[in-house]
Specification:
Length: 208
């Protein structure tokens, strides 16, 4: 699923382990808590507050997309097993984790899905961390394949498309980890009198 390697010597990519992914998904933002949960808490029963928000490109335009990771699963749902076998997705791939999630698609003007139950296999394929989403109860929805990376600020980004998408093709899905605190941009406020404000505006416009 990755692009062909370039010629020359390059540093090997540091790939995560299952515990790395488990800590990231279920440890919250506190690094110490991540480690504690990874080492002491059984996988089943852990819940996650990780949310990804983004868009999916459609013929009629972009639709808002939200994935919410909920909990780790101890085994693959039958739909996931069948689909990955059909697509030979386990060939040369190292499974890291199976998780449950939900998917919402659309906005107030047009709602397509609302908290649709999903499951995902997180694996390493061709030196990329890959996330394969399918619906455990509604296979007609099809599947989604995403590559997970980190941006310059450390937030997780997802890009991809349907189950036949390969890294290197133009992605139709873009999503980014929703940060715990998102502050609105501060707008400057003019604190002077109405007369002073009028003079300032006319001055910017080149008035006398």
């Amino acid at each position: 699923m990755g692009q062909a390697a370039s010629s020359g010597v390059s540093e090997a990519k540091a790939l995560p382990t299952a515990n790395d992914v488990r800590a990231l998904l279920f440890g919250g933002k506190d690094k110490a808590l991540q480690r504690q949960r990874t080492l002491t808490t059984p996988p089943n029963g852990l819940t996650s507050d990780l949310v990804f928000e983004g868009t999916v490109q459609q013929l009629q335009g972009e639709l808002a997309l939200t994935y919410k990771v909920t909990q780790e699963l101890t085994q693959r749902p039958p739909t996931l097993v069948k689909r990955r076998k059909q697509l030979a997705m386990d060939d040369d791939a190292e499974e890291l984790l199976i998780v449950a999630a939900t998917c919402s698609l659309g906005d107030a003007k047009m709602t397509v899905l609302t908290d649709e139950p999903m499951c995902a296999c997180i694996d390493v394929f061709d030196d990329d961390v890959r996330v394969h989403f399918v619906s455990p109860t509604n296979p007609e929805l099809g599947g989604v394949v995403l590559i997970a990376t980190r941006d310059a600020n450390g937030a997780i980004e997802l890009r991809g498309g349907d189950e036949y998408w390969w890294d290197g093709y133009p992605p139709i899905i873009h999503a980014r980890e929703k940060t715990a605190v998102e502050q609105a941009p501060v707008k400057p406020v003019f604190a002077g009198s109405f007369f002073e404000k009028d003079v300032a505006v006319r001055g910017l416009q080149g008035g006398a």
